[in-house]
Amino acid sequence: MAKLLEVRNITKRFGGIVAVNNVSFHMEEGEVLGLMGPNGSGKTTMFNLLMRTYKQDSGEIYFRGKEISKYPTHQRVKLGMARTYQIPRTFHEMNIIDNIHISTRPDQVGKLMGIREFTEKERELATGVGLEDHMFKYPHELTMGDLRRLELAKVLAHNPKIGLLDEIFAGLTLKEINEISDLIRHKREEGLDFIIVSHDLRALAPLVDRVVVISFGEYIAEGPYEEIVNHKKVQEAYFGY
Amino acid sequence: MANYLAVFAMSWDILSGYTGYVSFGHPFIIGVASYATAIMTGRMGYPLYASLPIATATGVGAGMLFFLPGLRLRGNYFCLITLAFMIVAHSLVIAVRPDITGGTKGIPGLPLVVTGAEPNFYLSLGLVLGIGFFLWYIGRSDLGRIFNAIRMDEDIISTAGLNSFKYKLLAFTFSALFASIGAVFYTHYIGTVSPSSVFAVTFLINIIVAALIGGQNTILGSIMGAYFITYLLEYLRPFELFAGPQRFLLYGCIALGIYIYNTRGFYGIAQDIAKAIKRKRGKSEQYGQVTGST
């Protein structure tokens, strides 16, 4: 299998704090990768580096063999990368369908001059993630589960090759976790690959082919989930023994 | 005057009301365009109709040159840097080459586009309607949605696959273009330009207050706000009690009162009234149906 995404020796410092230290990993085409680590291990920082929310101090990122280290966020999205946020981020004065609509817009001024209500594509996206009854509600009227669905709909709006899901199960009920998991499986069958960050290891385990573990910004281990949870260094990182 | 204030307020609103980049330097763009056309027609002997487009382009160009680095900043820092441009420009036109700029006195005796109150009113009304319709349309289009989205959360604009800098720059270009157009026609309406008339804090406040009490982020509200301010100030003028700065004190209190009553200004108040009438009509129709059936 070809490498879909590759991170080589990436480092990010915030003043004197090294948030990510010389980390390398890759994911294959058709793979779902879990990114694990205790609180403050640098998982979200890694997502922010992958999407260029932060600029790395050193190291390179490759997407489908092409170096994208200097590409700004919107160009990475156009290449086929899209993300969700740990705390869902929405346009709070816009209803759900308009929030999705923004993510479907082409980055071309000439194509943005029209006045419209909403399109079939947006309705399908909302329905696809189970938001069909909430399309004209505002983000503050949604439950956390529905906000996570909205985040997913915005990712799917780009028709990406890889979706970066940051704590997608946080704050959800068991029923909601099962529904989101089914959605991820369904999208995987359609050819979408994911990197998933989650503290909920029971939810994460059945979805991923492989996991990469980082702790205090350092790469610790990678491999199938069952092997990794019994890995000595991983247990040390999580439990301290 | 109300029409020109409306043009300036609308051009401020498309940048600051929509994208949330609050500009305190709007008079800088207006001033550069005004001085450009004044110098060309009053000092260099350019024909009026040649100077209008050149001065407009100068206003937009100067705005770009100075504000582009500013668009890399956010929030209060953007406000301050734009305010600094206005203050520096005020000092520069007084101190540098007063033989050209006219120093503190400015440049009087400029040619007029049209003469007489009525033709001037219709000219300025045409500008308000033309610019107002264009900006209102932009505000309702997807482009307007993106400008609004920048105000709500600029970071996730990039995550949505859109180049936020491009759209900020576009909003700024619209803003600078229409402010400059307003400026050149205004200059040739009053026939004079001076540092205290364009690079002035009171002028800046009038623009911002017109946009805010009219209804930020609505375009149409800016027109309402501009008319209200102009007529209020003119109405108060004959009263001895409000002869001096007291006029502005009362104007400030009224503006504040309106803004406190409804942060969406006149536009919001008008919307609320329309909704209330609709509700009332709905109820009376419902009542009619019920009584009709019994």
Characterise the protein shown here:
The complex is a heterodimer of chains A (241) and B (294). Chain A contains nine helices and ten strands. By secondary structure, chain A is of the alpha/beta class. Chain B is mainly α and 294 residues long. Chain B has 14 helices and no strands. Chain B has helices spanning 2-19, 26-43, 48-70, 75-95, 98-101, 117-140, 142-152, 155-159, 164-190, 195-198, 201-215, 220-236, 246-261, 265-293. The model of chain B has no long low-confidence stretch (mean pLDDT 89).
Output the radius of gyration of chain A.
18 Å
Order of helices and strands of chain B: HHHHHHHHHHHHHH
Can you say what the CATH homologous superfamily of the largest domain in chain A is?
A: P-loop containing nucleotide triphosphate hydrolases
> Biggest sheet of chain A, in brief?
6 strands, mixed
Total E-strand runs of chain B:
0
What fraction strand of chain A? 25-35%
Please indicate the percent range of residues of chain B in DSSP E strands (runs of 2 or more): under 5%
Question: What structural category arises from helix and sheet content of chain B?
Answer: mainly alpha
Number of contiguous helices of chain A: 9
CATH class of the largest domain in chain B: Mainly Alpha
What's the level 1 CATH class of the largest domain in chain A?
Answer: Alpha Beta
Structural class of chain A: alpha/beta
Task: Summarize the entry for a quick read.
The complex is a heterodimer of chains A (241) and B (294). Chain A is 33% helix and 26% strand.
Q: What descriptive keywords fit this protein?
A:
heterodimer; A: 241 residues; alpha/beta; Rossmann fold; 2 domains; six-stranded mixed beta sheet; four-stranded antiparallel beta sheet; 9 helices; 26% strand; B: 294 residues; mainly alpha; ABC transporter involved in vitamin B12 uptake, BtuC; globular
